[in-house]
Design goal:
The chain has 267 residues and is α/β, with parallel strands linked by helices. Helix content is 52%, strand content 8%.
């Protein structure tokens, strides 16, 4: 059940949301039922699986690493083309922060380390994302869903870039990104308790004795933060000279593709 009243939330348990319904800066509206974002879909009950099947998806772009997809595979969705495009490595900054959080010998790492992960997405790792945007902006692939495990970080970046390409103002782009904190609130609270218990076990202390800096690492992993997405958007413009330069030269999307994408989704 959704924990917020936002009508774009389709299946709250998997953070599945419709990117439609938002208004662009020049007064157009993004069509609903064509572009979706989510976390993994493997734990859906029968009712929620029926909802996903009712979306009429043609394409799912799975942003997860192969090992993640193997552990939590998509449910059987007939006639849906599932395309796996891994956009992160096993030793990414999230893994580094998670490992340091539990290691008694390691200095805990916080949001700054995760911010660097987001910053490097549009510099060191942009080549991983180019095929994602090539698919996601293809009108013939709609209705299309893209997902990762939690549907907040990798998925959040792709959603933000697509919404910006469509002409959505930054305040709405940021609100969509941060909405994951509300949709996933119960899961986050449960995960924080689990992290506290695991940290205590590894440090040989009681949960009440877990240092604040260790829990700061936990929060850095679990929450979407404005500075994370801001690092992506600001670095994209700085690295490529402008937002248009990032889209054209960073993502290699030409004007014909952009026009077709916007035409398919805006009215």
């Amino acid at each position: 059940m959704a924990e917020t009243p936002d009508a774009r939330i389709v299946v709250a348990s998997s953070n599945l949301r419709d990117l439609g319904g938002l208004t662009t800066s020049d007064g157009h509206t993004v069509r609903t039922g064509q572009l979706f974002r989510s976390g993994h879909l493997c734990d859906l009950g029968d009712a929620d699986r029926a909802i996903v099947r009712s979306l009429g998806l043609q394409t799912i772009v799975d942003l997860r690493r192969p090992a993640e997809a193997d552990v939590k595979p998509h449910p059987d969705l007939p006639s849906v083309d599932v395309v796996g495009i891994s956009v992160s490595s096993d030793d990414n900054e999230f893994a580094v922060v998670a490992n340091a959080m539990l290691d008694p010998q390691a200095e805990p790492l916080g949001p700054d380390h995760i911010t660097n992960y987001f910053r490097t997405l549009v510099t060191d790792h942009i080549d991983r994302y180019r095929p994602v945007f090539d698919l996601a902006t293809d009108p013939d692939r709609q209705p299309l869903l893209f997902n990762c495990t939690a549907g907040k970080d990798r998925t959040g970046v792709v959603a933000a870039v697509l919404l910006r390409i469509l002409g959505i103002d930054d305040d709405l782009v940021m609100a969509d990104y941060l909405l994951s904190n509300e949709v996933r609130r119960s899961w986050i609270e449960t995960a924080k308790v689990d992290h506290r218990q695991r940290i205590a076990h590894h440090l040989g202390i009681t949960p009440a004795e877990v240092p604040e800096e260790r829990m700061a690492s936990s929060r850095a992993l679990l929450y979407c933060r404005e500075d994370y997405l801001r690092a992506v958007l600001d670095t994209a413009e700085a690295r490529w000279g402008s937002w248009d330069g990032f889209v054209a030269d960073g993502l290699c999307l030409d004007e014909a593709r952009l026009a077709a994408f916007r035409t398919s989704l805006l009215y």
